[in-house]
Design goal:
By secondary structure, this protein is α/β, with parallel strands linked by helices. The strands form seven sheets. Strands 1, 2, 3, 4, 5, 6, 7 and 8 form an eight-stranded mixed beta sheet that branches. The longest helix has 19 residues, at 226-244. The structure holds ligand 0RQ. InterPro entries: AcetylCoA_hyd_C (IPR026888), AcetylCoA_hyd_C_sf (IPR038460), ActCoA_hydro (IPR046433), ActCoA_hydro_N (IPR003702), NagB/RpiA_transferase-like (IPR037171), Succinate_CoA_transferase (IPR017821). One of its GO terms (molecular function) is acetate CoA-transferase activity.
């Protein structure tokens, strides 16, 4: 198949002001690189000439500097969905320069297919290869690329030759049927392959191909500290206890682990704990620690929507393709995060909260209820449907000025009904089978930082003598947040 080759600038010139652009990739990898940069340059030039130029961005998840930063910094984004984790994009959203709406990652592709988000004018997809028949072999992630290729009016492909043919065969492309007669997704085991290794695009829609040769650039992890290591150990110890008492099947269950520093520490601790049998991952993001643990024999199989690996770990994977290549599958996020697959496989989900309240509601996304951090990502998909849903968080943030355990979360992403276990460096709160009052006691005693325990008890006691199921004080529920906003320290809270 002979698709026309274009320069990045030629490709970017196809995109018009007001277009909705679908961006392939996931978790800042496997995303297009050259065309978004050229698009940002074009927007800058047009703005200088006094012309408006903005596009709506629909992605699989985070896209990183090459897209979110480049386009946000030239004010070229009218709206953005779903997950983002870039400082410049965050700033654009929090200053109302880009409209943002947050969607569960399992739903965004489906929303596009249902037509909920209007037309996708142009999709930009990174490929690691294009077959003779014009089929697209994706690169380090899948995200919602298959849906974008299906739904977009025009498709631009970046052919990234930096991966040679290492990734061919690692993808499993499958999209669920449309309702009302949708069949089951036939993933019965973590390693079931159910789709194709490539995406067949309608050749009439392919507007051109831009050659690139550039690896993904992922943000480095901050080194572990005693807090993150202790959270990791607490998670591992908890799972060992559950497994030993038979609450987790003897062969163990697949794990999902979130992204970021804490998630990396948790996985490291789980891998290091040799009491647990080797396990598999049914997750969104395959990050650095997974490759080490696979080589160490601790993880037998990993399926996710992206290989979010630093350069050295990607090299390690490519050097060990004989042993690792057949033990990794990259799937659309609609499959990795689907309620059906998560519940069928009995995935144990471990995600990170910004804050949790004493009843177990979790805020993963908004600082003080107002400023977006990243987005709900897949945490809601996994928390609702997991065999066991665990949230972790350090008990304090900003050097102790903020308690991550509060009377009431300032924004709710996962509700008390979805949060079974809460873990901080202080300990583990097992919320299963507990009433709101019992939860409050369990969380304050086991998870809150000692500096904040009395304050939280003072809050609970405000409801003493009143008849209520949940000890909530309407007057005081957000007082700790208010104290931080007004004085810079939650310890200055005074309840009325
Ligand atoms: O701020 O960077 O300025 O120091 O939040 O916090 O402790 O470094 O934790 O990197 O693991 O991120 C929830 C954001 C945690 C992430 C969140 C401040 C803190 C720091 C980051 P600084 P840490 P992490 C599936 C799972 C939602 C999506 C998800 C996330 C910064 O895990 O985006 O779960 N989750 N996906 O100082 C104010 C508080 C705070 C606070 C922390 N209570 N108030 N600031 N911070 N607690 C995978 C995917 O979806 C891809």
């Amino acid at each position: 198949m002979n698709y026309p080759f274009l320069t990045a600038a030629e490709a970017a010139s196809i995109i018009r002001h007001g277009d909705t652009v679908g961006i392939g990739g996931f978790s800042s990898v496997g995303t297009p690189k050259a065309i978004p940069a050229a698009l940002a340059e074009r927007a800058r030039e047009l703005h200088e000439q006094g012309h408006p130029f903005q596009v709506g961005l629909i992605t699989g998840g985070a896209t990183g500097n090459q897209i979110d930063k480049a386009l946000a910094e030239v004010q070229a984004v009218s709206f953005r969905t779903p997950f983002q984790s870039n400082k410049s994009m965050r700033e654009a959203i929090n200053t109302n320069n880009a409209r943002y709406f947050d969607v569960h990652l399992s739903l965004i592709g489906q929303d596009v297919r249902y037509g909920f988000l209007g037309k996708i004018n142009v999709a930009i997809i990174e490929a690691s290869a294009i077959t003779e028949n014009g089929e697209i072999i994706l690169s380090t992630s899948v995200g919602i690329s298959p849906t974008l290729v299906e739904m977009a009016d025009k498709i631009l492909i970046e052919l990234n030759e930096a991966h040679e043919d290492h990734l061919t065969g690692m993808h499993d492309i499958y999209l669920p049927d449309m309702p009302p007669h949708r069949r089951e997704i036939p993933v019965y085991r973590v390693n079931d392959r159910i789709g194709t290794i490539s995406i067949q695009a309608d050749p009439r829609k392919v507007a051109g191909v831009v050659r690139t040769c550039e690896r993904d650039a992922i943000a480095p992890f901050t080194p572990q500290n005693e807090t993150t290591l202790q959270i990791g150990r607490n998670v591992a110890d908890f799972l060992v206890r559950e497994w030993k008492k038979g609450a987790i099947p003897h062969e163990f269950l697949p794990l999902q682990s979130g992204v970021g520093n804490i998630a990396n520490a948790v996985l490291g601790a789980l891998g290091a704990d040799r009491q647990l049998p080797p396990f598999s991952m049914f997750t969104e993001v395959i990050q650095n620690s997974v490759i080490d643990l696979m080589l160490d024999g601790r993880i037998c199989f990993a399926t996710g929507s992206s290989l979010t690996l630093s350069d050295d770990k990607l090299d390690l994977l490519y050097d060990n393709m004989d042993t690792l290549g057949k033990r990794i599958l990259l799937r659309p996020q609609e499959i990795t995060n689907h309620p059906e697959t998560i519940r069928r496989l009995g995935v144990i989900a471990i995600n990170t909260a910004l804050e949790a309240d004493i009843f177990g509601n979790v805020n993963s996304t908004h600082v003080l209820g107002r400023q977006i951090m990243n987005g709900i990502g897949g945490s809601g998909d996994f928390a609702r449907n997991a065999y066991l849903s665990i949230f972790t968080t350090p008990s304090t943030a900003k050097g102790g000025l903020i308690s991550s355990i509060v009377p009431q979360v300032s924004h709710t992403d996962s509700t008390e009904h979805d949060v079974r276990i809460l873990i901080t460096e202080q300990g583990v709160a097992d919320l299963r089978g507990k009433s709101p009052r019992q939860r409050a006691e369990c969380i304050i005693e086991n998870c809150a930082h000692p500096d904040y325990r009395q304050l939280l008890w003072d809050y609970v006691k405000l409801s003493d003598g009143t008849s209520c199921h949940t000890p909530l004080s309407l007057r005081n529920a957000l007082k700790m947040h208010l104290a931080f906003a007004e004085t810079g320290d939650m310890r200055n809270t005074v309840f009325e």
